[in-house]
Hints:
three-stranded mixed beta sheet, 2 helices, 6 strands, chaperone, GrpE, GrpE_head
Amino acid sequence: MTSDNGVETIADELLDQALAERRALVQLCLYALDRASSGVVERIEEGLSSIGVVAMRVDGQRFDPAQHEAGGTVPTDDMSLLGLVAETEVPGFCDRGRVLRAPIVTVYTPR
């Protein structure tokens, strides 16, 4: 029984270590992505997506301060656009549904 507990403990420790290392690598990729050229950004996003980390571009969606960070506004006379995201300035990212970073967006406001 002791050896089973020991094996489980070692397995749990290795899993915890692997998850911590994965989180660190994802954060490093996000850091690099913010500083990369468009071709490199595309490749990093593809790689992240293959492990369940997806970019969040919310253009056209209703602005939600609980999920989005407002980086600026765009005045408009079109009442149908008020409160919608005009542009995603910096994409957000989520890891299997858990938000890692909220997108920074520009929001339509009344002129």
